[in-house]
Write a structure and sequence with these properties.
about 130 residues; alpha+beta; three-stranded antiparallel β-sheet; 4 helices; 6 strands; extended
């Protein structure tokens, strides 16, 4: 129980610190948005996974560089750029102009590959004729 509470407290402290950092950089609370160079920069995060988007990759690098100064001391960041990006267990595909395709195929494929094989004995444990009635 103490470990769970610690993780919750650590997550809350990080959230408060990260939110204060974004506000000091001129962003607003919730989903962080700011107009930079006449275009919207949007940042969202889940725990310690951050997704930032802007049409100019230099803006993305500048904002992430600013965050790196504050939060990059513990572990190096990994950056995913381009038309197809990974965020959490999702693949975000921006190949089609004006649209995004979100999939979890790779995650599901890897998850299924890690399952133990099903044996004939396990398949025979249910009476399949009445199973779905």
């Amino acid at each position: 129980m103490y470990v769970s509470l610690w993780h919750l407290q650590a997550a809350m402290l990080f959230w408060k610190s990260l939110t204060a950092k974004f506000v000091s950089m001129g962003f607003v609370k919730c989903v962080q948005t700011k107009v930079i160079g006449g275009r919207q920069c949007t940042i969202l995060w889940h725990v310690d996974d951050i997704k930032e988007s802007h049409v100019d990759s230099k803006v993305v690098s500048e904002v992430l560089g600013e965050l790196e100064k504050e939060y990059g001391k513990e572990a190096p960041r990994t950056v995913s750029c381009g038309k197809r990006r990974n965020y959490l267990v999702m693949v975000l595909d921006y190949s089609t102009r004006g649209a995004v395709q979100i999939s979890m195929y790779d995650y599901i494929k890897n998850m299924l590959a890690e399952l133990p094989p099903v044996t004939d004995v396990e398949l025979r444990t249910h009476n399949h004729s009445t199973f779905l009635r």
